[in-house]
Structure formats: C-alpha cells, structure tokens
Design a protein that fits this description.
Elements (H helix, E strand, L loop, with lengths): L5 E2 L1 H8 L3 H9 L10 E3 L2 E5 H21 L1 H4 L11 H9 L1
Antiparallel strand pairs: 1-3, 2-3
C-alpha cells in the first residue's frame, strides 16, 4: 500500500515563502489562487504533497503563458526622448 504524504501549515508556509498568518488569511477569504485548497484531517489542516506540487506547476505554467502573451509589449522599440531635431520634423512633415 502506498502511503500518502501531507504537508502541515508550517511546511506549506516554508514552501510558499509566506507566513502562517498570511496562509490563514488567504484561507479565510477563500483565495485559492494564493494558496492551494487544504484538507481537514481531524482538527488540523493538511495539504497532499502531490496536489501542492501540481498547484505550483500550474502557477508556473500560468506565469509562463502570461509572459509569452505579453512578449510583444515587452519588445516594443524604444522611443527617443526629448524634442525632435529639425531633420526629424522635416521628415514627418513630408510624409
């Protein structure tokens, strides 16, 4: 039989880089985009290791997708700052 492993709230806080109070706050507001949904084991909250790993992988994939969607905006040509030169003004007026 395969034994399932769980994280407690202290371990989850370490993994996510958040405080225990922050995790409790996210759970109270049901913000499951900030922390994965927990399981109740008796009176304690627990997170299955595989589900936390899958949640983190989904967040990483979502971040990569967001970056690739906005890549064109990140590569916009730099605009010259300041007042245009006389030559640039002439070129614009000829167009």
């Amino acid at each position: 039989m395969v034994q399932k492993r769980f994280y407690n709230i202290e371990e989850l806080a370490t993994i996510l880089g958040k405080s225990i109070a922050a995790i409790h706050g996210h759970l109270a507001r049901k913000q499951f985009d900030a922390v994965p949904p927990p399981l109740k084991l008796g009176r304690r909250l627990a997170w299955q290791v595989e589900s936390v790993d899958a949640w983190i992988d989904a967040k990483v994939a979502e971040a990569h997708q967001h970056i690739t969607n906005h890549q064109e905006f990140m590569q916009a040509p730099a605009r010259k700052r300041g007042r245009p030169t006389k030559a640039e003004t002439k070129l614009r007026s000829q167009k």
